[in-house]
Amino acid sequence: MKLLKTYTIIAFAATMILNLTSCDKVGGDFALDYEADPALLPEVSFSASATTIIEGESITFTDTSTNDPSFWTWSLVGSEFGEYTEQSPTVIYTVPGEYDVKLKVRNEYGASEVLLEDYIIVEGEPLPFVSIFRFDGNLEDTEGTNGITAVSSYGDVTYVADRNGNASSAYLAPPFPPYSQDLTIPGYKGVSGDAARSVVAWFKTGAGTGRKAIVGWGTNSPGQMFNVMLQGGQVRVEGGGCSLRTSRTDLMDDQWHHLAVTYDPADGPEVARVKVYIDGALDENLPDAPGQSFNSERREVNTDPDGIDVRIGRPAYRTDYMWVGELDDVAILDIALSPDQIGALAAE
User: Fold this and answer.
1) pLDDT band at 208 (very low <50, low <70, confident <90, very high)
2) Whole-angstrom Cα distance, residue 174 to residue 154?
3) Domain span including residue 110
4) Nearest residue to 203 via CA among 86, 37, 330, 64
5) What gap in Å lies between CA 211 and CA 175, rounded to an integer?
């Protein structure tokens, strides 16, 4: 490394600019000929108070570099401000993702830097599941606030590989007839009235034209029911005396799909305000017309709080609209999930 000093002299009378460079001696050698000994450069190192956090949490990075460092530049992509010059900054990460950390340190002899790729993992805020069933070889709900284990109406349950190939990690509905074979969440009546809600699930089913219920609760009266199902390859949401259908028709293709159904009363009280997301993308609601939606603009969401216990694989009223195929990660929330939250679930 060459250490140079440059001086500028401006002579106004002669309109002359002269640049002079001095050569200081360093260790007996002139700076123009001096290369810093690598052993004199900073040896960069640091530690972090955590490497996996939840969005909105902070991390303290502690510089542990040696060889008398005097200047620091932290490049912390994904953090609140991005770059920092403190020796040991405390920073906040607000967006989920995996982020690099780069630290450049200087002393009087020069600079050194280190880059650690994907060193920080920022996870999204845990979703407030009321009930969620992972079907990892059992019917337990270990993450929802309910914590209620589901009950089979027909005996032993069969578990199969999930969408990621994990053995015994998805629910396989029994063949029917006989009818009335489903799972029940005992004592849980679902989200009632016009309260915000979300139903999410992974599903896989083959071709058919009949209705296949994923989740249902309430009472079969106008506006007092909430069923989420498929019909003829489309999503169908029933509110009691009405139904909402969406545009995609290819969902009975024996492939795994992610489904999210949300209702936010801030969007309006009608069943037509329900939103349906398939594989993370918002699907188009069909209008009230023959063979499409029915009474969805007239009926309001007002789910009966005293209806049936929530059923998985069967609607709130019929015994023959049973689910056929596989289900996984079936969940109910008492909030309307955002598109970003749904996208994250669909990417799991």
Assistant:
1) confident
2) 9
3) 38-123
4) 330
5) 14
In this structure, the answer to whether residues 213 and 192 fall within a common structural domain is: yes
Same domain assignment for residues 224 and 244: yes
Model confidence at 231: pLDDT above 90: yes
Any domain includes 320: yes
Model confidence pLDDT, tens digit, residues 53-100: 999 999 999 999 999 999 999 999 999 999 999 999 999 999 999 999
Mean per-residue pLDDT of the chain: 91
In whole angstroms, give the CA distance from residue 224 to residue 218: 6
Give yes or no: residues 299 and 162 share one domain.
yes
Q: Which CATH number does the domain housing residue 175 bear?
A: 2.60.120.200
Lowest mean pLDDT among 26-40, 128-142, 334-348: 26-40
**Strands of 90-92's sheet in order across:** 46-48, 58-63, 90-92
Q: Which of 252, 282, 132, 299 is nearest to 199 (CA)?
A: 132
3-class DSSP string for 35-50: CCCHHHCCECCEEECC
Which stretch of DSSP H or E encloses residue 268?
none
Side-chain half-sphere of 322: how many Cα atoms within 13 Å? 18
Around Cβ 102, how many Cβ atoms within 10 Å? 17
pLDDT for 342 equals: 97
Q: Please give the single-letter amino acid code of residue 219.
A: T
